[in-house]
Write a structure and sequence with these properties.
CinA-like protein (chains A, B), CinA-like_C (chains A, B), CinA_KH (chains A, B), 6-stranded mixed sheet, 425 residues, globular, Molybdenum Cofactor Biosythetic Enzyme, Chain A, MoaB/Mog_dom (chains A, B), homodimer, Alpha-Beta Plaits
């Protein structure tokens, strides 16, 4: 089965938002082995939408639309599909009644106040192209659409991810799979690395790729983002077990080649791995940050349940705070400066003591755009204090302020991860 | 002039990365009034690339490709363009020599080590479709391509944003503008609001939209993301001054309707506005965070020069840290709990004193997924201490852990912004 995606909306075309829906749907379709060959974005224009739907159906068995199902005048997906299929729009009385009940409930309980009457234009969401079936929307007001046409089946879903995801999983995907019969299954295995550049990872695996995956099944892809590199091994087979058997030897060879750079697989995160390593040791963590300004703590607390391990942190942005709050020796600041390995080590020790944690992690450096203490932009010093003693790591990042801060967060978390992995207790 | 975008790459189609290049190019084209009607993503397949190029040229005057220009076997944009245009690829001796010099320099100085010989496949980057001109790449190794065809002009640029942005601005855009003659100019004005929902902003402006922009020029769009809502007023005219004259009365009416919800325009940020308000008062700020775990501090320190105003912060993730580091009265924690307006106010006062700042801002709450102290997920209490006295603001957010944390950051910064705006010194 061949599918195409068609996202509708001027806000996508003009770059007000990125097309994250296409990325999400691309992953879902790849996971079930539906072949996706083209993904298109079109503006809020009935004729253009209709033309792109017709073209997509000429190339693929199904086209999956997102966006343009809302109540306002620029929501034109319903009209575009109807035009493409050569049918008229009709208002569905059951959908209309459901919308009316929903708006009345809002008027009674909701934030808009009692006596609220939804503007008439809201009931456009009860319109369907002739012959179409509505797809239930458990979250928002706009139902989805499924329409069988001569050229293939058309699905349309709202553009809001929170409404689209459950509609795809609950309605569109089961319908697609039913039609596809027994598709080939694609299984992915993602190996996650940090602290090494993509080209180094790729080079480390170059020989293995040619040896173990010469015919493109399994396939290996290298994906770098946010200072980390993922190695994705994908295999296509008749069932999941067979696909996993194809992946196994490649994964084994890749693991050997990556060594300690490998921190996890699939949905693992670097911050989750650090917290897990600490939990396994029965230890806790406190962090002190200057150049990363709270982002290391912010990343760790992204993880639900971080409080079992993470005690807290100090953002010592003003240099005096390093002394007054973290107790860094003023001699260290005067001699080596606030951006130095010595300051990083003292900050780590200070925050560990202040928050009563087993381990302290600290980052100081120069994010940019200007140098600081005559130290160049990109300078980073990481300090670590724990049962392993006191360690520092210094590096120089090549990016701008934003990139340097993100990479410094990754490097700090990865430095602690490597230290905890090597110094087992 | 009508343009289409065509991004090449399995990694885009399968959702490994989002198509940020299309968003960026969409903004650039909209800004100069080039009409963009369709944007497409196609996988790493020569025939597919060629087919999409031909289709795009059938609809538009130019097609701008990104991606697929690298050295590896799956970089097939060169071949795809050649197939679409019915020409052969030829190796450009000047490009090849330049690549050879570049790789030799890498071998001498670079991280790959002395004696490095670039694999032969790298010289595929010196191939050009017959009749094409190379576009200089100041950053990376792959040159861009410009090819005049019967159907229109084809541009191809690397997919790496750091290489593509300067190539577009330096080579593609000037060439496009030269061809377009004197295009209509589109001017945008963005009004930025925080602390109100998109629907409330839209409702506040509904009457004005119909009255001032009935014919779609200027046009008003509402764009909600990350807990903030932007109102974009766009006008198309013969020159920028005329476009600005069209925008002016709509902007004035919108400003009046938005009131204090409006925090800035165009590229202003909420965090930058908070820092500017503090700098104007000659004041400083310290923040204490639990549920946001460092993200408020992280957002403030995104701004270069934040150190003039921002002293630092404490992430008091463990409840004991609120007492031991911030000096919150244990009676407050015992009576009201760590998630309470009283705790938020005490945290704000504590961090202000600890870091010697003029103002303290604190956030405590329940991000989720589980309730805490029997308080429901989404509970947020914001505390503010400054020359204006002590203020708290409590709210209930409807999202999951990730959304609640992002929205809490925005609500905390916005609460302080509104307070500083109202309590002028």
């Amino acid at each position: 089965m061949r599918a195409e995606l068609l996202a509708v909306g001027d806000e996508l075309l003009f770059g007000d938002i990125v097309n994250g829906n296409a990325a999400w749907l691309g992953r879902q379709l790849a996971d079930v082995g539906v072949e996706l060959t083209t993904s298109t974005v079109v503006g809020d224009n009935v004729e253009m939408i209709a033309a792109r739907v017709r073209e997509a159906l000429g190339r693929a068995d199904t086209v999956i639309l997102t966006g343009g199902l809302g109540p306002t005048q620029d929501d034109l997906t319903r009209e575009g599909i109807a035009l493409a299929a050569g049918v008229a729009l009709r208002r569905d009385p059951f959908l209309e009644a459901a919308l009316r009940r929903r708006f009345q409930a809002l008027g009674r309980q909701g934030p808009v106040g009692a006596g609220f009457e939804a503007p008439e234009m809201n009931y456009r969401q009860a319109d369907l192209p002739g012959g179409a079936e509505p797809l239930p929307n458990e979250v928002g007001t706009a139902p989805g659409i499924r329409l069988e046409t001569a050229g293939g089946v058309v699905y349309a879903m709202p553009g809001v991810p929170g409404e689209m995801y459950p509609m795809f999983t609950g309605s569109v995907l089961p319908d697609l799979l039913r039609r596809a019969g027994e598709p080939a299954v694609v299984v992915h295995r993602v190996l996650r690395t940090a602290g090494v550049w993509e080209s180094v990872v790729a080079q480390a695996l170059a020989g293995e790729v040619d040896r173990l995956a010469p015919v493109g099944n399994p396939m290996i892809a290298f994906l770098a983002s946010g200072g980390q590199t993922r190695v994705r091994i994908s295999a296509r087979a008749g069932d999941r077990a067979e696909a996993r058997r194809l992946i196994e030897p490649v994964e084994e060879a890749a693991r050997a080649a990556l060594g300690i750079a490998l921190y996890g697989v699939d949905d693992d995160t670097l911050e989750g791995t650090v917290l897990r390593l600490l939990a396994e040791r029965g230890e806790t963590l406190a962090v002190a940050e200057s150049m990363t300004g709270g982002l290391v703590a912010g990343r760790l607390t992204d993880v639900a349940g971080a409080s079992a391990v993470f005690r807290g942190g100090v953002v010592s942005y003003a240099t005096e705070a390093k002394e007054s709050v973290l107790g860094v020796d003023p001699d260290v600041l005067a001699t080596s400066g606030a951006v130095s390995p010595e300051a990083a080590a003292a900050m780590a020790a200070g925050v560990r003591d202040l928050l009563g944690a087993t381990n302290g992690l600290a980052v100081t450096g120069v994010a940019g755009p200007d140098e600081q203490e005559s130290k160049p932009v990109g300078t980073v010093h990481i300090g670590m204090v724990g049962a392993f003693g006191t360690l520092t790591r210094s590096l120089r990042l090549p990016g701008d302020r934003r990139t340097n801060r993100i990479y410094a967060v990754v490097q700090a978390l990865d430095a602690l991860r490597r230290t905890l992995s090597v110094h087992t207790c």
